[in-house]
Structure to design on (419 residues):
RNA sequence: GCUGGAAUCGUCUAGCGGCAAUGACAAGAGACUGUAAAUCUCUCGCCUUCGGGCUUCGUAGGUUCGAGUCCUACUUCCAGCA
């Protein structure tokens, strides 16, 4: 295979659905799909080494252009993300589109998929991101020194507020940053809307995201070979929970020359399947699709069934750090396992379970006042949870290839969610 | 033995006349989905029809409308001197 090629091949479909198993080819290796990409926002997965990632069967890592924006030049100098990070397999970078929401309308809030949680948007004056047609103005709240003088009312800061820096990121900036970082796959710059945004706002935002997609594509073409290997670009589909918006944007971006597609949005759990179906019925079948930011087993199963090929999510590592560990019979809360001699899951093939480290011991490390103990816990717990999700995608792939997806899905869901 | 000082919710701690009583830790429950997350929320004397009721700050008295807070005695602990 040529070093410069990107490709996707479908190996087998799930009969009667949009789902498939396949292989994505990138300059840094293949990704057998469905696959879970580990999240290493700043170039490393928290508390996991590249060696750990290999050991638990990770195939690809997702990093973030926004978080690496100030390091992109030195990453380019080192030959790109793979060389710089020590993870030499396939990589993907997000554009910063998630931060438009997480630092803007969703600042200080959790991203929930439950209707009951009653999502509201953060007031404009408190936001650290402001959206304009040209791009997004980000305010960096850390290490504030520079005082923003008056006469900057177009910026999302109060007068005389101390902030370190104002960053402007639009499609062109995001593409340049991502092309310097040099992941195998990039995301077009998009705006992720929140569950609280109206149809009208979503429509307006979606049109802008589509214009940004076009601009992303144009800028990306200029720089995609700068590091000596071909970097690919996915267009990102937004449109909230509305079928007309979703189908229209999928058709529109689907006709553009992207290498694949990101399926984005803040979803209610009950809507996920429909939204993915609307998008994937319209998108070209022969291009890979990445479902952005989801990893609960039911979400991955629906995603795979509805034609998503790759996934990423911070939940496995974050929840590991917070004491929630995954098992086939549902999640456990480590708090309840003081002095327990049990293993998390005696059939698990992760390094932590293979070493026979008990829940009691894990809890002790987690609750320890020693940072060293805690960090050991974060490593052991992250290894377990990430391996659990990777194994889930491996088993889904296996089931698709064997024509047993439906059977596998039902059995898994029954055991995991006790229904 | 004498002289000081101290005793508060599992632990440490605030409290100098209006207090069911501060904060931290521990404990318990929940959350977390393209990482502002080694984070966040809630509970943490007993009962409650959620209005409130009851019992609490070493023990026993006292002063006061009112005491964890002031006074007396006792108990225990700490420090200094013998």
């Amino acid at each position: 295979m040529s070093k410069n090629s990107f490709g996707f091949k479908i190996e087998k479909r799930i009969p009667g659905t949009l789902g498939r198993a396949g292989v994505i080819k990138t300059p840094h290796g293949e990704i057998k799909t469905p696959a879970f990409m580990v999240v290493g926002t700043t170039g490393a997965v928290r508390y996991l080494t590249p060696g750990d990632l290999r050991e638990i069967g990770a195939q690809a890592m997702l990093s973030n252009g926004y978080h690496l924006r100030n390091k992109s030049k030195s990453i380019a100098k080192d030959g790109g993300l793979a060389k710089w990070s020590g993870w030499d397999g396939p990589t993907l970078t997000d554009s910063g589109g998630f931060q438009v929401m997480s630092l803007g309308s969703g600042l200080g809030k959790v991203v929930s998929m439950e209707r009951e949680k009653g999502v509201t948007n953060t007031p404009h004056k408190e936001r650290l991101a402001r959206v304009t047609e040209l791009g997004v103005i980000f305010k960096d709240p850390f290490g504030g020194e520079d005082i923003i003088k008056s006469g900057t009312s177009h910026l999302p800061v109060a007068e005389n507020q101390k902030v370190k820096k104002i960053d402007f990121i639009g499609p062109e900036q995001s593409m340049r940053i991502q092309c310097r970082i040099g992941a195998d796959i990039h995301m077009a710059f998009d705006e992720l809307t929140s569950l609280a945004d109206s149809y009208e706002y979503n429509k307006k935002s979606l049109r802008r995201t589509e214009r940004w997609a076009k601009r992303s594509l144009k800028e990306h073409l200029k720089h995609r070979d700068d590091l000596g290997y071909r970097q690919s670009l996915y267009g990102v589909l937004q449109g909230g929970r509305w079928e007309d918006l979703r189908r229209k944007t999928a058709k529109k971006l689907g006709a553009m020359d992207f290498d694949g597609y990101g399926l984005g949005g803040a979803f209610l759990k009950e809507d996920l399947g429909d939204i993915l179906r609307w998008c994937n019925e319209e998108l070209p079948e022969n291009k890979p699709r990445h479902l952005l930011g989801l990893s609960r087993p039911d979400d991955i199963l629906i995603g795979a069934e509805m034609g998503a090929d790759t996934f990423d999510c911070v939940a496995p590592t974050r929840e590991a750090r917070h004491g929630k560990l995954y098992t086939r019979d549902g999640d456990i809360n480590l708090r309840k396992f003081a002095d327990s001699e049990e293993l998390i899951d005696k059939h698990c093939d992760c390094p932590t379970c293979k070493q026979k480290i008990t829940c009691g011991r894990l809890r002790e490390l987690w609750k320890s006042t020693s940072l060293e103990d805690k960090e050991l816990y974060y490593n052991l717990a992250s290894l377990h949870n990430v391996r659990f999700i990777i194994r889930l995608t491996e088993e889904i792939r296996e089931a698709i290839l064997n024509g047993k997806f439906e059977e596998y899905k039902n059995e898994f869901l029954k055991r995991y969610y006790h229904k």
Confidence is low (pLDDT under 50) at residues 144-153 of chain A.
